[in-house]
Amino acid sequence: MLILGIETSCDETAAAVVENGKKILSNVVASQVNLHRKYWGIVPEIASRKHLELIVPIIKESLGEAQMKLKDLDAVAATYGPGLLGSLLVGLTAAKGLAYALELPFIGINHLEAHFYANFLSYPEIIPPLVGLIISGGHTELIYLSKEREYEILGTTRDDAVGEAFDKVARILDIGYPGGPEIEKVAKKGNPQSIDLPLTHFKNNSLDFSFSGIKTAVLYYVKDLERKKAPVSTADIAASFQLKIAQMLSKNLFKAAWQKKVKQIILGGGVSANLFLRSFLEKEKPGQMEIFFPPLELCTDNAAMVAACAYAKVKQGKSSPLSLDAQPNLGF
Ligand code: KG4
Ligand code: ZN
Hints:
Blueprint: E1 2-7, E2 12-19, E3 23-31, H1 33-36, H2 44-65, E4 75-81, H3 85-102, E5 106-110, H4 111-122, E6 130-135, E7 140-145, E8 151-156, H5 162-173, H6 179-187, H7 212-227, H8 234-259, E9 264-268, H9 275-284, E10 290-292, H10 296-299, H11 304-315
Parallel strand pairs: 1-4, 4-5, 6-9, 9-10
Antiparallel strand pairs: 1-2, 2-3, 6-7, 7-8
Bound molecules: 5'-O-[(R)-(carboxyoxy)(hydroxy)phosphoryl]adenosine (KG4) and zinc ion (ZN).
5'-O-[(R)-(carboxyoxy)(hydroxy)phosphoryl]adenosine (KG4) is lined by residues 10, 136-138, 163, 166-167, 178-181, 184, 269-271, 273-274, 300-301.
């Protein structure tokens, strides 16, 4: 079964053709990051206009790379939430239009669920029950998957998402946007033990997260140094921040896995591309647990994960009505 997946929830215009939810025949991603860089964040109006310009060429490119024609497709899928309304509408409308014209099933996809499918797409040995953690620019979701497509939220952020904290700290340090990859790069030259930043955990066994405290601590630390006209070691701050983030994520993640008695853990979302975090979690994990990270190109937003998730829904006999609307605040 050949599924065309489309993803436009944020600032990537992406289309992919995936066979039977496993084999990626094409995976085209056009990032708008250069357009948004000077604003230190995504400007929704610019994002939706760019999606509109790119959506048809990107779909054509994904079909061309897969050496497929529209008539070869069996279904069309697109992300319908969560994300930016104007951005979501572009990919969703394109997918619904194609499905209608080609008389194919249309499948609306939850972007958060799709991030998990970056793992299922890559590693056939992953079998629920398991614990998953999505860490991206907009979300921090700790989830229990009892069986395929059955999700229970165990913990979430009470303020900023992890990726958002990376982006904001990179802005404080003036090292560029998006902040995650910049912090990772700069941190390589720093000492992660050099600055004592706060770790936030909640009482009463809560598995929730909070990242605004550490961001504010970095802000005050830098301001204080500037006031004293002391040198600011960007590398030390980046490394210390990255270590504390890894510790906060690791604590709740392994606690959840232990509470749910699972043997497998999966990660997803842009922040799971962070190699320091990956090796930290590998080192911290209890011996009998397996931890999976998507290949780097499938951590950040892409449409292959959308098509793979759509295949799982089709297998369960599910499709979506063409009246399905974009849902910017869609949860799990
Ligand atoms: O999943 P994603 O592409 O988009 C959303 O759904 O939000 O995630 C983007 C986020 C950004 O905040 C970016 O700074 C972060 O992922 N990110 C990273 C890394 N690469 C991307 N954070 C830490 N380390 C990285 N290597
Ligand atoms: Zn995402």
